[in-house]
Amino acid sequence: MATVTRRLIRCGWLVTGDDGLGTLKGADILVAGDAVEAVGQRLDLPHDELIDASDMIVMPGLINMHLHTFQAGFRAVGSEWLGPDYFRNFYGNAAVRFGPEDNYLGTLFGALNQLDQGVTTLADYSHNLRSLEQAERSVDALVDAGIRAVFIHGDGLREPAVPGAMPSRRLHPRERVEALMKSRFARPGLVTLALGIAGPHWADWEASLHNVRLARDLGLVASSHVTRSHANAVTPDGYDRLAAMSLLGPDHNLVHCNHLTADEVHRLLDAGCTITATTTNEFHDYPTDSVLRKVMDRGHQPSIGVDVEAMVAGDLWREMQTALLFARNEGLRAKRQDAMIPSRTALGWATTAGAKALMMDKAIGRLAPGLKADIVMLRAGDLNLFPVHDPVFSIVEQAHVGNVDTVMVGGEIRKRGGRLLFDEGQRRLEGERLAESAARLAAEAGWPLARSLGA
Predict the structure, then answer these.
(1) d(CA 351, CA 338)
(2) Nearest to 278 by CA among 301, 307, 257
(3) What pLDDT, in 10s, does the model give residues 334-348?
(4) What are the b/e assignments for 89-112, b being 16+ CB within 10 Å?
(5) Residue 33 confidence (pLDDT) above 50
(6) How far, in Å, CA of 54 to CA of 100, rounded?
(7) What are the distances in angstroms from CA 296 to CA 214, 276, 291, 336?
(8) pTM for this structure?
(9) How far is CA 353 from CA 179, 205, 363, 437, in A?
(10) pLDDT above 90 (res 161)
(11) Angstrom distance (rounded) from CA 82 to CA 213
């Protein structure tokens, strides 16, 4: 059978996310290979396949900027946890017991879930890694899922942590990262590499400096957790010192930042950093207002992510809607004139802002000629969306994973007719292995998975 290389998509509504093209009704997209070749009305161009999306909203794929994907086997078990419970039960305990296959299974199912709901690019913050094999099997899972991903390599704890006494000398392992660059990342592909480093909030100055310099030396984007005020960090003035040394910039992504003052946030943005909010998990874990408003007040746009599926749903539609509502609410409480943040802005948090944070904005986040064909199609006739008056409102305020009919990554269809195109037999077998993995790890960690059932 001949390979389909040119697909013409006839759209009902087309939300390009591109400032020049805007939102169009009844437009067409021509996909050639892995990229968009043309966008316009009634395109009369050669094609191998015609996709009738005349009853759909066509949009750029979502970008989930922060997910600890390997945790998928523990979905919802921490629904009643608070922040200290997560560190005691999971990150500081169960996570250190994962082997390579445990990482593979969790990452596979986590990535498939993202793909199923219309996330075409996943920033997979894999921060429990203790060996090269464990890292490589995590990458294998992303490749097998068929999602575009940035594998954010994070060095894990070696043994269960003593509560309240996390190690501060967290030197990122150069040898393992360089080995990955020579193995899994020797050739271009859908999965690329970044570093998840311990920065000043979680590491002493020597480790923070080492980790940031390592990312710069290797030419990789770095991402770090910022979950405290600067005053309560391991190295309180660490980010200011890094900025003074010109070691912060667009290649450094900071996650959370919700405990920072406006001035502290603005200094990081002025240094060139990008900031990612995981609002739902932050309200669950680090209760205070989101950083979204502080970022916007400096003329920047935050990106958004999910974070920890053990405690919150791995659902970027819900995250986008929740983040927008809380940011609007914060503005209303402060009686700000700009309290009503536009829905289009929130869509940018889940698309273009993520692309910029990954330094991939020339390739993804929008639908325009020359960019990758990462495309999602929503059934506009579904009862929760029909009738569509403004497709952006429908996307941001009403849509959910159940509306996702088709997902395309780099021109390849990964979901069609509402069904993920992943072998069902393999999915069942690997699902059995994932359930066994989670049960074993929880038992080794000394806590039950089904507390609500009295197990």
Answers:
(1) 22
(2) 307
(3) 999 999 999 999 999
(4) bbbbbbbbbbebebbbbbbbbbbb
(5) yes
(6) 44
(7) 30, 12, 9, 13
(8) 0.97
(9) 30, 30, 13, 35
(10) no
(11) 34
